[in-house]
């Protein structure tokens, strides 16, 4: 297997690393904590200027038309730099509209590619034990939205949102202006600092053109899993790098604590979790870019991501000892990010349940079934 990136992908990764490194210093993160901003607005403007906000948006709409693997390179850099911007949410929402609503939303997609509007999305309800609480109902011959969508990233700042709503055809994506009549926003802040809001919808009138096709939900969910996992990979890699640096400098009983077997084993566990996530994520990105079925790979990556977020977040925090809970020391931010990203994906137990449901009805899992000569295997 060849995991090497192309020259273009390496160039994109280097540019993204430079951008997020400049904005992701510990000093700037402390300033953001005190600034009461919904996200890093100067960083978002830099993303627009460099085109990082529109990598996955097709060229026909003014984007770069690149694949998920290219986006992975950027999002990993965002995770390492803890870049507080709705980067994957914005462009995956626009890419989904371009894939499934190109004719009716052409102007909106172009504006998203230009950076003149902000899009966001929320798929939390797909992994929630409470299920989808937003519903599309028909009343007096009109379609209405009723119910609630929880913890939608930058909902109060976004111009349009993609939300999951239950309908007669099953769960579907709906395009919503958060300032529509009947929408109430309850703003809040995620545990890692990004602005979010709950949406309460009471008799919000929509038209049929705002409903995306049923298949759009699976299309978006798989790419969102890859995006979140890429951010988590960047978070975890930088978290472990900083921790190794710390345990090699911190001394107890006359030697560096990094020489203690228990610390070494903890770091080894973190390394295994990172490499497991990386390999699964590479496979998912490859299959998405190649147009291959990716249901099982998405669930596997989702599980490994939530497991890595929890294990690495807590083990690195643990070996820091008392300094790890000192908010003037930066390592806690990586734990907060890991907890947030894990919540976005819904946790490992919910993911395993969905993977089990998929396996119960699909017995052809593996690369060999993608080959032309095996398409008729029963």
Structure description:
The protein has 378 residues and is α+β, with helices and mostly antiparallel strands. It folds into three domains: 7-117, Butyryl-Coa Dehydrogenase, subunit A, domain 1 (Orthogonal Bundle), CATH 1.10.540.10; 121-212, Butyryl-CoA Dehydrogenase, subunit A, domain 2; 216-371, Butyryl-CoA Dehydrogenase, subunit A, domain 3, CATH 1.20.140.10. Helices cover 51% and strands 16% of the residues. A hairpin with a 5-residue loop joins strand 6 (183-189) and strand 7 (195-206). The two termini are 28 Å apart. The mean pLDDT is 92.
Please render the helix and strand layout as text.
Elements lengths: L6 H17 L2 H10 L5 H10 L17 H14 L5 H14 L5 H9 L4 E4 L11 E6 L2 E12 L6 E8 L2 E7 L6 E7 L5 E12 L8 H35 L1 E2 L2 E2 L4 H30 L4 H25 L11 H15 L2 H14 L17
Parallel strand pairs: 1-4
Antiparallel strand pairs: 2-3, 3-7, 4-5, 6-7, 8-9
Helix pairs in contact: 1-4, 4-7, 5-6, 5-7, 7-8, 7-9, 7-10, 8-9, 9-10, 9-11
The gist of it:
It holds the Pfam family Acyl-CoA_dh_N. With 378 residues, this protein is of the alpha+beta class. It has helices spanning 7-23, 26-35, 41-50, 68-81, 87-100, 106-114, 215-249, 261-290, 295-319, 331-345, 348-361, and strands at 119-122, 134-139, 142-153, 160-167, 170-176, 183-189, 195-206, 251-252, 255-256.
């Amino acid at each position: 297997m060849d995991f090497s990136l192309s020259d273009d992908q390496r160039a994109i990764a280097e540019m993204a690393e430079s951008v997020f490194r400049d904005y992701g210093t510990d000093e700037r993160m402390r300033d953001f904590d005190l600034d009461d901003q919904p996200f890093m607005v100067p960083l978002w403007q830099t993303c627009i200027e460099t085109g990082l906000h529109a990598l996955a948006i097709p060229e026909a709409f003014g984007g770069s038309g690149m694949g998920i693997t290219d986006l992975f390179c950027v999002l990993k850099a965002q995770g390492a730099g803890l870049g507080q911007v709705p980067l994957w949410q914005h462009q995956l929402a626009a890419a989904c509209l371009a894939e499934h609503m190109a004719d009716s939303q052409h102007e909106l997609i172009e504006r998203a590619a230009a950076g003149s509007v902000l899009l966001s999305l929320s798929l939390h309800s797909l992994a929630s034990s409470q299920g989808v609480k937003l519903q599309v109902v028909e009343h007096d011959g009109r379609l209405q939205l009723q119910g609630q969508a929880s913890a939608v990233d930058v909902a109060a700042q976004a111009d349009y949102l993609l939300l999951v709503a239950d309908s007669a055809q099953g769960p579907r994506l709906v395009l919503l202006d958060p300032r529509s009549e009947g929408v109430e926003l309850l703003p809040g802040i995620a545990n890692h600092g990004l602005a979010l809001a709950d949406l309460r919808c009471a008799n919000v009138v929509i038209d049929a053109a705002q409903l995306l096709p049923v298949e759009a939900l699976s299309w978006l969910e798989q790419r969102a899993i890859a995006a979140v996992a890429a951010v988590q990979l960047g978070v975890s890699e930088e978290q472990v790098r900083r921790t190794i640096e710390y345990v090699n400098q911190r001394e107890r009983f006359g030697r560096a604590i990094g020489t203690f077997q228990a610390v070494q084993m903890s770091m080894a566990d973190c390394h295994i979790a990172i490499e497991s996530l990386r390999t699964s994520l590479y496979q998912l990105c490859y299959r998405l870019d190649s147009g291959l079925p990716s249901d099982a790979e998405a669930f596997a990556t989702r599980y490994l991501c939530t497991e890595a977020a929890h294990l690495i977040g807590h083990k690195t925090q643990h070996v820091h000892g008392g300094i790890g809970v000192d908010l003037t020391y930066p390592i806690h931010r990586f734990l907060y990010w890991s907890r947030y990203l894990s919540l976005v994906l819904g946790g490992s137990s919910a993911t395993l349940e969905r993977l089990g449901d998929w396996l119960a009805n699909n017995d052809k899992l593996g690369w060999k079934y993608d080959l032309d000569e095996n398409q008729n295997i029963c």
